[in-house]
UniProtKB/TrEMBL annotation:
It catalyses: a 2'-deoxyribonucleoside 5'-diphosphate + ATP = a 2'-deoxyribonucleoside 5'-triphosphate + ADP; a ribonucleoside 5'-diphosphate + ATP = a ribonucleoside 5'-triphosphate + ADP. Its EC number is 2.7.4.6. Keywords: ATP-binding, Cytoplasm, Kinase, Magnesium, Metal-binding, Nucleotide metabolism, Nucleotide-binding, Phosphoprotein, Transferase. The gene is ndk. It comes from the Bacteria. Its cofactor is Mg(2+). This is Nucleoside diphosphate kinase. HAMAP family: NDP_kinase.
Length: 140
């Protein structure tokens, strides 16, 4: 399988509980390399753009409120089959359905406050990475 890059966010419930290092340890243990990382406070505009695909969903307002409620850590992860691999490491959106050992099973608080985001396809990964990182901020 080819080396890929995926976009990750450690969400406000993770920064609030000071568990970003614990999550990064799970990411690295899975063989993914953190090739870019920064801590930011998303604006509403950034969050609305990022989650535009969900703008008709009933939870959109709640999702934007949550993503702007505190700092997040945005990351680029690199590795073999990184997009699918990170989705596996994250676990299901709803932590009560997530497999044992996954980030969401171990750390997520609820279906909304679920600790991490990971891109779902190569096209979305490229768009999401470009929203938050310049090329020279990614060092593989
Ligand atoms: P992400 O896109 O954050 O990686 P995902 O792909 O597992 O998560 P999506 O269906 O894309 O899940 O939903 C995006 C985010 O919207 C979820 O991670 C979660 O924070 C929030 N969300 C999804 N479903 C609900 C819901 N029913 N109620 C509240 N928030 C939700
Ligand atoms: Mg998604």
């Amino acid at each position: 399988m080819a080396i890929q890059r995926t976009f990750s966010i450690l969400k406000p419930d993770a920064t609030e509980r000071n568990i970003t290092g614990a999550i990064n340890a799970l990411i690295e243990k899975a063989g993914l390399r953190i090739v870019a990382q920064k801590r930011i406070h998303m604006t509403r505009g950034q969050a609305e753009t990022f989650y535009a695909v969900h703008k008709e969903r009933p939870f959109f307002g709640e999702l934007v409120d949550f993503m702007t409620s505190g700092p997040v850590v945005v990351q680029v992860l690199e590795g073999d089959n990184a997009i699918a691999k990170y989705r596996d490491v994250m676990g299901a959106t709803d932590p009560s359905k997530a497999a044992d050992g996954t980030i969401r099973k171990l750390h997520a608080k609820s279906i909304g406050e679920n600790s991490v985001h990971g891109s779902d396809a190569p096209e979305t990964a490229a768009i999401e990475i470009a929203q938050f990182f310049a090329g020279n901020e990614i060092v593989g």
